[in-house]
Amino acid sequence: MAESMSVQNLNLYYGDHQALKDITLDMPAGKVTAFIGPSGCGKSTLLRCLNRMNDRIDGCRVEGKVLLGKTDVYEKYDVYELRRRVGMVFQKPNPFPLSIYDNVTYGPRHYGHHSKAELDEIVETTLTGVGLWDEVKDKLDHSGLSLSGGQAQRLCIARALAVNPEVLLMDEPTSALDPISTGLVEELAVKVARDHTVIIVTHNMEQATRISSKCAFFYLGELVEAAPTPELFATPKDKRTEDYLTGRFG
Ligand SMILES: Nc1ncnc2c1ncn2[C@@H]1O[C@H](COP(=O)(O)OP(=O)(O)OP(=O)(O)O)[C@@H](O)[C@H]1O
């Protein structure tokens, strides 16, 4: 089941450096929201706040609210429970050095007790959902590291989805992939958003227009504007957004 996320008056500091400045943004349930903006503007930093991945960084300090539904993720959740609810896939596919089967069942085993029959069912359903089942069903015992980049990224998405998250965060998930694999992951993101909230960081403007319903443009740690994607691209309100979208900088 999808759940919305939002941040309210969010400031984030890496030591003395303020990387996010008073960000307030809603990310609607069951939609794809895209974060765009030039390198270093804070997109990945904001994404990592949503499941508290920044907690691991020494000197990182967060002020303001990060909400999953109506619940503050910094106050109410154990971080492991939060990361089950808010899954993440990264720029570089990172399957665990385990079998394909064990990659998918890693989370379910960790978060609950499942019989072999239940785990088999989770593997088939989840790999079918990411369009990988027919390609791997006869080699589930092969290492996840033996897959192509595109297959490995879909395995990582399956691994994240196997624990029934409400939100899936994607940090430039296609930047290391060829065009065909990119298309498959984009289709998958749209499909996943039917029953999850998807939030994606992308440098690819066409990708943002192809898959996102809402788009947020960041510049130097500020949220410049956020709007339904067709509106943001057709009629940006801020000159900086327009300049970025038309390739004047970035
Ligand atoms: N672990 C860290 N420690 C200190 N500063 C950091 C850290 N991670 C990011 N920053 C700084 O925070 C700012 C925002 O970085 P961030 O990676 O969020 O930007 P981005 O928009 O995702 O960039 P890119 O598109 O290049 O990935 C940058 O100035 C960056 O140097």
From TrEMBL:
GO terms for cellular component: membrane. It holds the Pfam family ABC_tran. InterPro entries: AAA+_ATPase (IPR003593), ABC_transporter-like_ATP-bd (IPR003439), ABC_transporter-like_CS (IPR017871), P-loop_NTPase (IPR027417), PstB-like (IPR005670). Gene3D superfamilies: P-loop containing nucleotide triphosphate hydrolases. It comes from the Bacteria. Residues 5-245 form the ABC transporter domain. NCBIfam families: 3a0107s01c2. This is Phosphate ABC transporter ATP-binding protein. It comes from Parafannyhessea umbonata. The gene is pstB.
